Amino acid sequence: MKVIRTAPEMRAWSFEQRRQGRSIGFVPTMGALHEGHASLMRAAAERDDARVVSIFLNPAQFAPTEDLDRYPRTFDADKAIAEATGMEAIYAPTGSGMYPEGYATYVNVDHVSEGLCGASRPTFFRGVATVVAKLFNAVLPHRAYFGQKDAQQCAVIKRMVRDLDMDIEIVEMPIVRDPDGLAMSSRNAYLSAADRTRALALSRSLFAAQAMMEAGERDAGVLLAAVREGMADIDIDYVELVDGDDFDPVDRVAGTVVLAVAARVGETRLIDNIKYTVPAKA
Ligand code: PAF
Predict the structure, then answer these.
(1) Please, how many CA atoms are within 13 Å of residue 23, restricted to the half-sphere of its CB?
(2) How many angstroms separate the CA atoms of 271 and 149, rounded?
(3) Which of 29, 34, 62, 158 has the most ligand 1 atoms within 8 A of CB, as the residue to mutate?
(4) Ligand 1: residues whose CB is within 6 Å?
(5) Mean pLDDT in each 10-residue stretch from start to end of the chain (282 residues)?
(6) Ligand 1 center to residue 162 CA distance, Å?
(7) What is the atom index within ligand 1 of the atom nearest the CA of 186?
(8) What is the CATH number assigned to the segment(s) 2-173?
(9) Structurally, what CATH architecture does the domain formed by 186-272 represent?
(10) How far apart are CA 33 and CA 26, in angstroms?
(11) Does this model's pTM top 0.90?
């Protein structure tokens, strides 16, 4: 397993893979890898010849009040997981390498980044889009793999790739859940046993709303009220039904929609969502 620390070294490795005609699959992460990340790495290993995972805890996507300092740092365990899932290289740049003194350039993806998580974390998507653009410039992937758990992040990255003419396929992989339904997240490690039980309100409420949509419910008001009721015992940040592409709120379920929630459970902010596509008429 090669560990690469600088963008020039990373590009040299990737140029060599491309010269040999190998496709490059890339999984960007902030470390603290879990089964959700492993599913992305396995997907890259199945589809791509050369596989890179990045591990970079990106300060630009954390506000000063957020949990950067206590975010889990588990490089050795991450390396073992990356190896076991078929990665060939880890790109782990340093903070000063990514954001040297005088760093001044940021990527803003308007509109799609403004609601939901963008409303409560106003600089978050700017930090994500910026670091992902920099990682793409270093890794030069053919395909990059992201998890649907961060559905708005996927929409922001897809829009950035489209708008900036980046020749990269964005592959969005399904949410990986614990057997009781909790969506896997590096932040689940912060939850006490009692909070973990309370956190199940997110997925339970979303699954109930999904069953309502499958049974024909199309009214956003009815669905949102049901989800809010299911999450009444935790501190809701948002419950929204949005269009699957541009993340605009919708009044009715049509085409592909995302039902997305965020809530604080104890000290931990959790997000979850389901995607639903209205079946075509037979
Ligand atoms: O989803 C994440 O882990 C991060 O937002 C990402 C895409 C690696 C950018 O830092």
Answers:
(1) 13
(2) 7
(3) 29
(4) 28-30, 58, 61, 128, 131-132, 150, 153
(5) 97 98 98 97 98 98 93 96 98 98 98 97 97 98 98 98 98 98 96 97 98 98 98 98 96 98 96 97 76
(6) 19
(7) 3
(8) 3.40.50.620
(9) 2-Layer Sandwich (3.30)
(10) 15
(11) yes
